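hey can u run this one w/ iron/sulfur cluster bound, need the structure tokens asap thx
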Amino acid sequence: MTQKNKTIGIISLGCAKNQVDAERMVTLMRGAGYTVTPRLDALDAVVINTCGFIESAKAEAIETILEFCALKAEGKLEKIIVTGCLAERYKSELLAEMPEIDGMLGSGSFRRVAEALDAAFDAAGEAPPPELYDAPGSDPLADETPRVLSTPKGWAYLKIAEGCDNNCAYCVIPDIRGRFRSRSIESLVAEAESLAAQGVRELDVVAQDSTRYGLDLYGRRVLPELLEALSAIDGIRWIRLHYLYPDEITDELIQTVADNPKIVKYLDIPIQHISDAVLARMNRRGTGAELRALMTKLRERIPGVVIRTTLIAGLPGETDREFEELCDFLREFRLERVGVFPFSPEEGTPAEKMTDRVRLEIAEHRVTLIEQLQTGIMDEFNAARIDSVCEVLIEDYDKWGECFCGRSWAEAPDVDGKIFITAASDGKQPMLGDIVIARITDIIDGDLIGEVL
Ligand code: SF4
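ok here u go:
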């Protein structure tokens, strides 16, 4: 029988969906009697929850695993458990190349983390590492496990579904995470209520494709109904929507966002590109004209809405003309928040087999050009906010700047900037997790400065 006075560390890489799984794993490990600590020194074992989405994410995951393999070789660590998307994609390769790994968990098996730790600690001699791989989605209770929040006070992710049915030509997520699976409105409301009871004021709604919510479970899209149910929860002040698939944004959803004061006027809509030819090669639904019409409609129907998108530069066959069309679109529609990545040829995807490759340095150069273009647009947006008043969720205290920092409706967690806040003239200090009223007074290095009113 395993001595449970073992101390476990956990690292979660990649996206918010992975982070929520890691929060559940902490509950499960503690429930099994392990001590779980955020400190990564003096551990008996580490659980590395990996991302395997694109090249850069894979490299980060492998680097992290190797770091702990080195600690293990120095006798500073007993066991290494690898979970998440990289473990799902490259099980045999990882075990072959890193024999220091003591256990592997597929993306559908994170609820068996304590079982993997037990097996690893109990393993005698040359016993092979436990490999726990359930088909993604085969564990109906996966998302019902309570979470130990890892986000700053005041906000948390709410993962409303897992998997994806869209099959974009460059993406491995459907293979790694399985078919699209919605959680029930009841279980999500129950989770959101428990989050509110823990002081969460902002819910960041995530899925691979949030707009598809309910289609599998209720036979129709019910994201507006879910949002109404979540906004009825006392304590929840902000609901922010991420990963909206453009051609599934209905008039009903737009009206719900426009009319409901708790739904933050910030929409994350990954479009990936604007050129019809490129969108077709990406196997994305919708045309450039439809995307332009959507952006125009959102600006009209939701005044002051901040739009975030994600783009890929350098998909095989992307011509200078097609790239220029994308830049023209950005200059014209002036989206406030844009993330852009160079195309990453992922094994097993249709895009990997495409010929007419764009050289990596050209793809990276196109990324730089878009980043430069967007810096100007963001500066313009920030400048227009000087002297404006907004609510700010206080996330942290900046010891260096001796001030608080937080986010308003216009900044999503982890991807957008911060607002640095000085206390009110009466010297009253805000608390972490508070939502305060602040006036934007200045901009320093792209970050906003404000004072509590
Ligand atoms: S919508 Fe496309 S890019 Fe996003 S997870 Fe699904 S298949 Fe991947």
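The CA atoms of residues 143 and 183 lie 8 Å apart. anyway lmk if its weird
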